[in-house]
C-alpha cells in the first residue's frame, strides 16, 4: 500500500520483515540512538524488532503508521515514518513525522533528504494542511533538522522515554502545507 520513494541518494521503501535485524542492531541495541526515542524499550529485548515490524506491516499505514526503511545502496540505514493524525494531543488533526538513523550514517544529510520526500508524500496522502513533529528539547540535532524543513515551534509536551526511564520535555513543531510548497518551489 505504501509507495517506494526515491531521492538523489536514497530509496525509501515500506518496512519489510527482513528489516528487523537491522532495526535491532542500528536502533534498538545502540543506546546512543535509542536514547532519543520514546517508544523504544531498553534494554532492547530479543524479538522486539520482529514484533514492531509485524505490527507495522499488519496495520493500514494511513490509519496507523506509514513506516519507510531508509536505504542507501540497498543497505538499511534508518527509518522515517508518518503517524496518522491523533498521535500528538496538541495537534490532533495533523499527521506526525518521526525518524531515526544509525549512528554511522548520521551527519551526511540523509535524514533531511528522506524527510523532504516523505513530507511531500504525506501532504498528498493525508490531504492535510499541516504536519507536526516532536523532538526532545535537548536534541539539538533533531530540532535543527525540523527547523531546516520549515517546522515552527507551537508548544511543549512531556513523554516518557523508556530508554532514559524518565519523562522528557519535547518541543512540538508544525509545518504548514503552504510553507512546505513555497520552499519546494523556491528550491
Automatic annotation (TrEMBL):
Pfam families: Acetyltransf_3
SUPFAM superfamilies documented for this protein: Acyl-CoA N-acyltransferases (Nat)
Source species, domain of life: Bacteria
Every N-acetyltransferase domain range: 10-178
InterPro entries given in the database record: Acyl_CoA_acyltransferase, GNAT_dom, N-acetyltransferase
Signal sequence region: none
Matching PANTHER family: GNAT FAMILY, PUTATIVE (AFU_ORTHOLOGUE AFUA_3G00765)-RELATED-RELATED
Protein name, UniProt field: GNAT family N-acetyltransferase
Organism per entry: Roseibium polysiphoniae
